[in-house]
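ligand=SN-glycerol-3-phosphate
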Amino acid sequence: MKFFIDSADVSEIKRAAEIGIIDGVTTNPSLIAKSGRSFEEVVKEITTIVDGPISAEVTAMDHAGMMEEAKPLIAIHENITIKVPMTEAGITTCVALSKQGVKVNVTLIFHLNQAIIAAKAGAAFVSPFAGRLDDIGEDGLQMIAETSAVFAQYGFDTEILAASIRNSLHVKQAALAGADVVTMPGEVFHKLFKHHLTDQGIEKFLEDWKSVPKSK
Ligand code: G3P
């Protein structure tokens, strides 16, 4: 199972990556806007921090425009994955870029049928948005489980990249549902390490250690 950081904040990405188990990064236009920096500059810097797929999203809504936007992004680094929205133009772009050997992440997936379409288009990743489905009272993790079962049934090699992950429970549920990748904010990633019994256990070990006679 792969862990990606869902962020365009380079210090957040660095802090998580330093631990040594981050496999990639996802960004989106909202995250780039939040960073307050230029898109190309941020993406370029991320490629120097994490050696793995880095999703950079196009914002054009037509196929030709998406292809134009993808060109300079692909040129930044071989690890750049082009993120396209789940629209007809996005899927046409996914087919074209995949044929060129460029990895594509189809984003804003909210239904199994959309995931199947993206897989048929040769997407390297599909991004089901678990949290946003939960927000409207639907079961985001159930959709990931369905996608996992159907991809296995048809032998699709598109990876399921669970996105819109809001908490540790989502990460556990995404793993159980068969997600290949979970992308999460740094805050969620760091929380995965924590358990109060781990903290209590460390405290007790260190306390007991004080009574161990020291060799002279
Ligand atoms: O990167 C896409 C996705 O992870 C966004 O999450 O929290 O804005 O629904 P969120």
